[in-house]
Amino acid sequence: MAAPVRGMIGSTSIGNTTSFQKKTRSKLVSIPGTRPSVQNGQLLVSSGVSSLDYVIGGGLAVGTLLLVEEDRYDSYSRMLLKYFLAEGVVCGHELFLASARDHPDDIMQELPSPIVDDVAGMKISEGQSQPSDPENPDTMKIAWRYQNQPKVQTALASSVRFGHYYDVSKTMEPELRQAAKCHSFYQLQETPVVTASSPLPSPYHSLLKSIQTVIRKEGFDGSTPQSKVRNVLRLGLHSLGSVLWGDDVCCKDNPAHCHALTTFLYILRGLLRTSLSVAMVTVPSHLTQNRAVMGRIIRLSDTAIALESFKGSEKETNPLYKDYHGLLHVRQLPRLNCLSCEVPDTKDLAFKLKRKQFTIERLHLPPDLSETTVSP
Amino acid sequence: MLLDVMQAGGGFILLEGNIISGEDVHVLGFESPETQVCAGLDSSSVQRLHFHKGFPDPLGWTCRSSFTVERFTSQHITQLIKDTQHAQASVLVVDSLSMVLRHHDPVVFCQTLQELRNGGVIKTIIGLLHSDLHQQGIVGIVCHLAGTVISVAPADNERLSVAKTTRRTKSGKVMQEEEYFSVSEDAALSVQAKPRQPGHVQRERDVSEADPTSNLTFNLRLSEDERKAKEKVALPFVFSQQKKSALLRPTPGSGRIVYEPDANDDFDEEDPDDDLDV
């Protein structure tokens, strides 16, 4: 049985005893804002949030689909979508934004502004492993040999910096935003196309047509010979499956178009695989009445995460969660051209949105110092 | 868009607030007669209030109403508002969205609301939805579409009702409030602060404050002198500050073994048994 080959793109397995050869590209594709994965050699782009990149294995592979299950009031999933698009602007990728509820231009105007200097990044990595000062009054008296040991590592970060940091309190400058090419699709302004033979309802059909047109015209699938530098297309699809897309999977147990969203995702993934593009789709999963549909949707996407916000639920007052804004569940990680995927070492992940960073941390139980003892 | 989710009738206090602020209010009344809605409003306010009669014939069976449920589409409503004079940004109040939802497809209904919201003619839509008349999914999608949701329910106290407001801003912030209010005979709304719930919280705190060291046969407490003596005790492995910092500094060879040769290790090659008397 062949083990997954760790190595750079382009290296054939010279020293291996098996005849298994990984299908790799012959030369290194160098596109700004991307890097090859150290695990399986895929070309990765950053999702805009560096701790999310760490959780999903280094970044989003080009040609894959990231599914985000929205939190109850769609505040953090919308924030993730904005980070994704802002990262595309900063790296110089092309953008495609589709939305049914808010106009895409409104979403584009709310993109966070990037933190240009390296100060923020440096401070974040320094603060974790800083030893305490020996002259500090609260040095330990008896266990003083341990005072230089680093505290429990809760933040997830890799050693190599990939991606940028953003300041949520400021919006991106219009010059920077307009430098990036953005195609938008607003469902309200589209004329309904009568598609009697298509299995998809009209909004999904027109959205797919629009994506396909953009990919073909701009040459992301290699159909038109590109004289300019190759680039990656980032697709952001907001709140698919909600009622405004003409889909009733959210309001009925037995929807009339129960296969609409699954068909759409299947076709979308086919389009992504044959082009240099990466997509992020948010779905209001808390509204879907049929659990089986959600399971199918997760299976049809590559990477799937779910956000659960504490706002409005009884977990808001739980002292365990007082530092965080919500929980992050990783539902699925893809196995792209390899046998096993890199999973994070813990499943208890929580996120918090600070002004300069969206951090995802391991949720670890603090020591139980309560007065009441629990008898076994 | 504001959505009022209620379990009992009422809710016309909102009208007075809107009319006072100078906006045109259009009411689609399917469930209450005009007289009940306009009771208590003065004449200038009544002029700005446009009531489209749907009650008592919302489906148009006897052709007595001016606005039927089937006509709840974005084109009809926009036309209706443009027909009235001074069509500025107006407020649309729908007496019962439940009535409309019973006779329209939920997907089409939500798309109609979205078109009305983005049409430019209407500034705010206030709708009343009876949450116990619909399935969970339909209530969920309408609440998801709304920017503000107010849920009204009777409180434990008989006279008061509780209103839970959830407001979503464009930037993604969610604000939640809970208010207690009561409606008097002449439809005047009085909002009160949360009434104090007797007993629950105080009782829990009393239990945890009992001192465990009080009723024992041995003494667990320290007097002042005893504490000073305790702190003066020299602990083993307590070194001076320089030795501590020297030990804390990471040395390059931290696994070094330092050995000073013993008397027995002095091995003389010419005299191995060490018994020559030289």
UniProtKB/TrEMBL annotation, chain A:
Q: Name one GO cellular component term.
A: cytoplasm
Which GO BP terms, alphabetically? tRNA wobble uridine modification
The compartments listed are: Cytoplasm; Nucleus
- Any idea which UniProt keywords this protein has? Cytoplasm, Nucleus, tRNA processing
Task: Spell out the residue ranges making up region: Disordered.
Answer: 1-21
- Bias kind Polar residues: ranges: 10-21
Q: InterPro entries per the record?
A: Elongator_complex_protein_4, P-loop_NTPase
Q: Which Pfam families match?
A: PAXNEB
Pathway field of the UniProt record reads: tRNA modification; 5-methoxycarbonylmethyl-2-thiouridine-tRNA biosynthesis
Q: Which PANTHER family match?
A: ELONGATOR COMPLEX PROTEIN 4 (PTHR12896:SF1), PAX6 NEIGHBOR PROTEIN PAXNEB (PTHR12896)
Q: Which family does it belong to?
A: Belongs to the ELP4 family.
Question: What functional role does this protein have?
Answer: Component of the elongator complex which is required for multiple tRNA modifications, including mcm5U (5-methoxycarbonylmethyl uridine), mcm5s2U (5-methoxycarbonylmethyl-2-thiouridine), and ncm5U (5-carbamoylmethyl uridine). The elongator complex catalyzes the formation of carboxymethyluridine in the wobble base at position 34 in tRNAs.
Instruction: List the protein's name.
Output: Elongator complex protein 4
Name its species. Cyprinus carpio carpio
Lineage from the top down?
Eukaryota, Metazoa, Chordata, Craniata, Vertebrata
TrEMBL record, chain B:
> GO biological process annotations for this chain's record?
tRNA wobble uridine modification
One Pfam match: Elong_Iki1
Any one GO CC term of this protein is: nucleus
Compartments, as annotated in UniProt: Cytoplasm; Nucleus
Q: Which domain of life is it from?
A: Eukaryota
Q: Which InterPro entries match?
A: Elp5 (IPR019519)
Spans annotated as Disordered: 191-216, 244-278
A molecular-function term among this protein's GO annotations: tRNA binding
Q: Which UniProt keywords apply?
A: Cytoplasm, Nucleus, tRNA processing
Residue ranges annotated as compositionally biased, kind Acidic residues, are 262-278
Kindly tell me the pathway this chain contributes to: tRNA modification; 5-methoxycarbonylmethyl-2-thiouridine-tRNA biosynthesis
Please tell me where this protein is predominantly located: cytoplasm
In the record, the note on similarity to other proteins reads: Belongs to the ELP5 family.
Q: What is this protein called?
A: Elongator complex protein 5
